[in-house]
C-alpha cells in the first residue's frame, strides 16, 4: 500500500511516525524547500495530543522539550488590575505542558527514516492514484492523506467547504531574550501565558523556550480587508508599533510599554475556521487530517486534534487497510466536532463585552 501524505506539519508527521512504528512505510510531500525554511510559530499546549506521542513512542522525548512552567497564567483587565495568577509547582505533572512548535516538529522529523519527507514538492493536482507536483514530477498513491493545513489542496477532492474569516485579526510581535533585554517586563509577564482582555481587543504574551516572548495584539471585530484599512503601516515596524499603541490608547501605560519593547517583527494574521462538525462522504483512497479537516480558532485544540488524527489513522491502517479511512473518519468527525464547538464558544468568550470577567468566571466558576 503506497501512502502519500501531503504536508509535513504535526499531523502528517505523527501519521508517518506511527505508521513507521507499525512497520508501514509512507512518503511525506512538503512544499517548503527544507525543514528550516519557515518559522514554526510559538508554544503549544499539548494535552490530549500526548496520547498520540505515546503511540509514536516519543513520550520521553516530548517531556525533555516540554515546559510545565508554561502552564502558568496571568489574567488582567485593561486598567492593569491583576485578576488571576496561577503558578505551576516545579514538580507538577505533565497535564498541559507547553512546547515550542518547532521543537515538537523536530522531534517528529528526527524520529522518521531518512528520505521519508520529500521537500520542495508542492502539489499541483491529484487524480486517479497520481500526485502531480508543480516541478513536473509525479508520485503514485493507494491512499492520499491531506495534511496540508488551512488552504489544503487535497480538501476539494472531498468537500466544497472553505475556511471563512472569524472577524479576528492578530498582529504578532515579539521581544527577544526578554530576561536580559527587559527583566522588568519578564517579571510581569511570568513564565507562561499572559492575557489582557478588553472590549473587542486583547493583548496576549507567551514565553517561548528560546527566551523570546511572543506578543499578540488581537482585534475581534474586523473585516477581511482590515489589514489594509487599519492604518497600521506594517512595512514600517516603528510606526506600526506606534499605531498599535494608539489603538490601545485607553489601556494602562504598562501595555503600551510592552508593545514598544517589541522588535521589528510585526506580522498581521487573520483567523479563519472551517464549519464546526464538517463531514464528507467517505472515499477509501483519500482523507484529511489536522487543519485540512477541521480548522479551528487558535485556542489550544488544533495541534492536539492533528496529532490524534495522525496517530488514529495510522492505527486504523495497521488494523485493517481496507476499512481504515471510513473507521478513522467516523471517530474523527465525532471527536473533532466537540473540540471545534468548544473552541468556537471559547472564541466567543474572548470577543464578548466584559471578556476579562467572563474569563475569570470560566477559570474560577462560582
From TrEMBL:
Task: Identify the main location.
Answer: cytoplasm
Sorted alphabetically, the Gene Ontology cellular component annotations on this record are:
cytoplasm
Q: Where would one find the signal peptide in this protein?
A: none
- Sites binding FAD sit at 45, 101, 291
Which SUPFAM superfamilies does the UniProt record give? FAD/NAD(P)-binding domain
Keywords in alphabetical order, please: Cytoplasm, FAD, Flavoprotein, Monooxygenase, NADP, Nucleotide-binding, Oxidoreductase
Write down the chemical reaction(s) this protein catalyses: a tetracycline + NADPH + O2 + H(+) = an 11a-hydroxytetracycline + NADP(+) + H2O
Q: Where does NADPH bind?
A: 38
Quaternary structure, per UniProt, is: Monomer.
- Its job: An FAD-requiring monooxygenase active on some tetracycline antibiotic derivatives, which leads to their inactivation. Hydroxylates carbon 11a of tetracycline and some analogs.
This protein is called what? Answer: Flavin-dependent monooxygenase
Originating organism: Actinokineospora bangkokensis
